[in-house]
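Section 4.2 – Deliverable D4.2 (structural model, holo form)

The reporting period included a commitment to supply a predicted holo structure for the target in complex with magnesium ion. Inputs used:
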Amino acid sequence: MGSGKTALVAALCRALASTLRLAVVTNDIYTTEDADFLRAAGVLDPARIRAVETGCCPHTAIRDDITANLDAVEDLEADFGPLDLVLVESGGDNLTATFSYGLVDRQIFVIDVAGGDKVPRKGGPGVTNSDLLVINKTDLAPLVGADLGVMARDAERVRHGRPVLFTSLTTRPGAAEVADWVLAVLAGSSRHVRSRSPDHPAAQVAAPGRPS
Ligand SMILES: Nc1nc2c(ncn2[C@@H]2O[C@H](COP(=O)(O)OP(=O)(O)O)[C@@H](O)[C@H]2O)c(=O)[nH]1
Ligand SMILES: [Mg+2]
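Output (structure tokens):
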């Protein structure tokens, strides 16, 4: 909770809504807070944002009984389809959270530096097996004493080559690298998207033509 999932969904909407047919499903336990935030942010036609109120452990609704989320995706497809991309944000993100691949084609796991630089080496299915690991809030690293180099090294070690991207969604709200990863996946090949360490200049530079 609080790692920046909704901020990333907003960033991806900003980056991709003009080129892709897009919709969003949010998950909250008792409210529609995240959907309300995204609608108020004006990042996408509000009708294309649906809220699922899980009413129970948020992991269950993305992993075990995915019916409510599948219904929301199918409703969006019926109303606005064909859609190129539906972003489903989970209502919880502790280290054991995973999506059923019956619900999603790809999983992005978002952690942030404020939890400490130990988090990647603690592992868990999201950190190790997600299709993309995003380590967010790099702007806070100096304030919380998180060593981004350690996080990059540990993440690479536990993920065996699966990609890792560092973001600061407050200082660079376009999340250009993540948007590029999504586009590469949609184009049918994510193989050219390599892991980038935070001290690698390429990680800090927005792709040409994309807002950062
Ligand atoms: N400093 C900083 N704050 C961020 C960043 N990304 C998100 N936040 C803030 O962190 C809080 C939680 O973000 P949110 O997207 O709601 O997290 P979620 O619970 O994972 O969906 C909000 O106050 C955001 O403004 C970031 O990169 N840097
Ligand atoms: Mg959220």
